[in-house]
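User: Predict the complex with FE2/S2 (inorganic) cluster.
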Amino acid sequence: MEKQRLKTGSLSRRDFLKVSGITLTVPLVVGPRVLKVAGAEVKVFGPGKVPMTFTINGKTYRAELEPRVTLLDALRNEFDLTGAKRVCDRGTCGACTVLLDGKPVYACSVLAIEAQGKAITTVEGLMQDGKLHPIQQAFIENDALQCGFCTPGFVVACKALLDRIPNPTPEDLVVGLGGNLCRCGTYVGIRAAIAQAARMQRGG
Amino acid sequence: MRAFEYVSPTTKEQAVALLSSTWGETEILAGGTDLLALLKDDIVRPRRVVNIKEIAELRGISFSMPAGLRIGATVTLQELLDHPDIARHYPALVQAARGVTSPQIRNMGTVGGDLCQRPRCWYFRSGFGLLARDETGRSLVLEGDNRYHAILGNEGPAYFVNPSSLAPALIAYGARLRIFGPRGTREIPVERFFRIPKSEAEREYDLQPNEIVTEILVPPPSAGMVSATYEVRQREALDWPLATASVALVLEGQRVRSARVVLGHVAPIPWPSPEAERALLGKTVSEEVAQAAANAAVQRARSLGKNEYKIQLARVAVRRAIQQAVGGGARR
Amino acid sequence: MAERNAMEMAEYKWPEPERRRLIGKRISRVDGPEKVTGRAKYTYDVNRPGMLAGKVLRCPHAHARIVRLDTSAAEKMPGVKAVLPLKKVGDEILWAGDEVVAVAAVDEPTAEDAIRAIVVEYEKLPHFVLDTDPKAAGERVRPTAEQVEGDPDAAFREAEVVVEGLYGASLITHCCLEAHGAVVEWEGENNVLVHVSTQAVSGIAGQMAGPLGVPAGNIRVKQDHIGGGFGSKFGPDSWGIAAAQLSKMAGGRPVKIMLERDAELMVAGARPSYYGRVRVGAKRDGTVIAWESETWGTGGIPPTSPLPLPYVLRIPNQRKRHVAIVTNSGPARAWRAPLHPQACLLTMAALDDLAAALRMDPLDLLLKNIELAGERADVYREELQIAAELMEWKKRWHPRGDPSPGPVKRGLGVSIHTWPGRGHACRCDLTIHPDGSVEVKLGSQDLGTGTRTAIAIVVADTLGIPLEAVRVRIGDNQYPPAGGSGGSTTIGGVSSAARRAALDALDQLFARIAPLLNASPDQLEAWEGRIRVKEDPSRSIAWEQACARLDGMPLTVRGENPGPGELTTAGAAGVQMADVSVDIETGIVRINKMVAVQDCGLIINMKTAESQCYGAMIMGISYALYEEKIMDPATGRMLNPNMEFYKLAGLADIGELVVHMMTGEKYDRRGVIGLGEPPVISPGAAISNAVANAIGVRVPFLPLTPERVLEALAKKGGSHARV
Ligand SMILES: Cc1cc2nc3c(=O)[nH]c(=O)nc-3n(C[C@H](O)[C@H](O)[C@H](O)COP(=O)(O)OP(=O)(O)OC[C@H]3O[C@@H](n4cnc5c(N)ncnc54)[C@H](O)[C@@H]3O)c2cc1C
Ligand code: SF4
Ligand code: FES
Ligand code: FES
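Assistant: Here is the predicted structure with FE2/S2 (inorganic) cluster placed in the model:
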């Protein structure tokens, strides 16, 4: 296989080790190195800290982070946007849900470096002109929260669901909210909140 | 998570060039829903992570007759679900994708990633390796708790179950994978992509460390084809199935002219069942025929001690998938 | 105020129903807006200037001895600020996940790297984690003394029917969504500031003082919000102490240690498993006369205590034996209503099996024996009837085994429960400011039960002012001490203290205002934002104007829960019913509907009271069907310390839930009683009974997984009767 390398010049194993052989504890922030592969220049970031820029709730944020830092940890630890919670940290519970370009994702399972250049919306960004989003209002009125730790994730997931499906059926809720868990057991309130927010958005 | 360097190439040639030819040194990042967990649990320790989501040619879905369906490897499960042609012609695939009940996973997780995701065996995920052996070499699966482990293809040394819900459906439809590597492009039936590793050094699928799954090609639905996926899952919330079956039958009148029956989450690979297929061929599907096929599918199944119940679940999945296909699956 | 305390204790009462504008109504929580917008700060969210990330190295073995421990490489790493061994060479480790070394570093990735750089070598020792069979436990059993009441032998001889069954519930964990942890900073000489996720804000300093060697008065404890506790968060824990020590080592920089999810599930809380063989003897008419049980179970190393059996119903003749099994499964902690869900399951399932043996409706069997519940028998009777109506029990119940064709079988189950829920010791300071605003301060905490809101309701209703005028400040140990929030004791404690403070404050205000209105203080009342003469409401003064008479000095009054009496008592009774469908081909159980009927004395906030019941039923569905801390015989580790295989019920798994709270004079008269525990007790039993009713056989153990349901079907169940 080594012999049949692509003409465009993929790296041999020795080349590879050369380019990746930098030690893993470089503490300094360095700009990306550039590798010439397959006839093009590709930027290599890290493993040390690299400058990153994010658009979160319409604002620009900058930080120097290692590529291994997740979006969730960047939001919480660098920008003090602690609405999204770290619970399972493995893409199971939904407490870290944020919107990436309008779609709900688990921030614990996205590398911060990948989220650059995308519109990131966190629960902190749902209020408009100081007013609660209808789903937030509905959560309060229907007591769809107890300890509230799962709540920001649920609020964001519910908003995303209603954006996609304005009048969700119970079946839509199975497939549309199966990615969020609550330990206190607030699901009855959440179902009621969704129904109310759907009504409000219909112009009720 | 250990530190790594990150690259985001824009062509598959670049990506392949950035991948090492040795397992462990680099990892491909698609949706990250599995890879990030593997990194956090210290199961993989790459020096470099290669993001493939910026590669335009890995995206997109196209469908036409008679060419069939092409799914780019980085198409998300949600995009798959939302595609009207797929919904119309490939119900077994849609039903499988819908079983992943988390929109967050569906928005991030890719079809290629679903096929290449690593087993969820709790010993593997705690660092005991794919074959789950302790330092003395004994199998922890056999000694320990195997309630979620394989009932088929479990002669050893591997006992995990393949986690992909899409693979059985794709195999039932006769799908092929297109793979790009240093030697260019190759194509392989999805069915042959998976394999049971014989040693710790082997991966559970046929891929070189510097190869990328680029697209999935699904043949056009043949006339008279009905298909379905049935999952046995304990919870409605995001939950791993305990057993699934995908079936695609081509009917001639009432009779089964050809049949594919593929079980999921019951063996280290998606498990095609020629026994079940034989039990269906030439028959008119009735409750008894479906039951006979289901029985045939698990004829060779065996318990590892704590997973006897999965044999029954697999049997039910097969029977219900067949019944769902003839009763409710889209029919052309 | 002093005179009033001494002379007119009986005056501290709850207002009459027509005088309650807020109490008992459906009030949205006052901290709702903070929580839905993500502004609410939990301990996990505390970011302090210069804060270091703390991590803990944990032992992977269930039983081992440390033979080598080398932290030197970690200490030398750039960015690592402190390394603190928590164990030393020679120490024995008794469960996987136990703490070995703690480190603090400039950020989380660096702390993780440091953890990986620590070398620990262990000598593995034999472990044991099996808890389902005491005979297999060898030396690991710790028997407790047999307990006998009445003459069980004679009663069993007399019995016309005897059923015998095997029941139990697996080890589970708390799985609070906010992990345990703390942010601690060592300020100056010997002052320590602690942000901690805790159910006992006022109790933490006392527990940290000893280990840290500083006076408790120097330890400031704060917590705005907590993401779940369920009984597992009463102490600073070894990691909280370690965070303080690391901070001291790092020159006072704040150190944050929050447990990773795997540690959270492995070491930060478990509900002990309990299993038992139960025999019940009865007359042919269903009168229960004899009980015998042999129970066992594990909560890790400390032996489990016997269960309160038989549960609720005091069967006159009984014999009980219990053996604890000592295992390396990790530490147990109080889990919402300790011992009750297990005792409830063993009792209610046995009675359900008895009813089946007698071909009796279990509802009738319970009613037949309800006098055994003692003084509150009438309440159960009433609740059982209401629940039956809400469930349409009489119309829908069928004898054991759903005869309808097809694989999906439907069934109904019932269970009853009790819990004391007495108010805890609690003090608060209530301040009326000259601008009319009101503040209440107490070292309490709101676990999501709605404590803040309840206090605000009590104070606002007592003072006749709007809810918004009251600011409740909790979560700080510099406020008057309040008990820990455990055992459903909070609502009784805080509401009594707040009511008394508000009444006393009002008395003082009345004394100032009375001359102005040409009345005596006892002729006045506070109503809808005014202070007025009861007999002649036209003589009144607005609340703000009245407060302006305070001569610029805030009026502060201390209130204290006087203990059981008019304001709070103990003893909640509840009934739950479940309607389930079971697919007998897959063993999958789905909840169609559950009904909870519950009393808890005077209800302060109907909205959050109902939420407690909904939440408890959901938690109950979760432990009945899904939850198990799976301990591996091969490695001795927990195999599912994640939320993928430690399964919690999701939004679509719970069916339709109906809650009915008992209200009215009879209940109000009892004062406030706690509600955190009671409704979580019965779901396991009610669901287990419903499954038995559906499929015709008993599935002995919770959770009712497909595996266990199919096995019970194959073996024809786990109980049998001799008639
Ligand atoms: C709690 C939970 C429950 C789930 N339940 C189910 C389920 O029931 N059924 C199911 O099918 N899935 C399930 N998923 C898995 C989910 O569908 C997968 O995680 C997802 O599809 C993986 O896609 P990804 O793009 O995120 O993969 P990544 O995490 O990016 O990658 C996964 C692996 O595949 C490799 N890889 C990815 N793409 C390629 C490629 N194009 N070529 C070569 N290698 C590649 C990566 O290197 C990595 O090793 C579940 C996941 C979670 C977290
Ligand atoms: S109130 Fe208990 S016993 Fe109750 S969960 Fe809470 S602390 Fe426990
Ligand atoms: S923290 Fe991201 S899904 Fe649980
Ligand atoms: S409200 Fe506490 S976890 Fe959902």
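Chain B has a mean pLDDT of 96.
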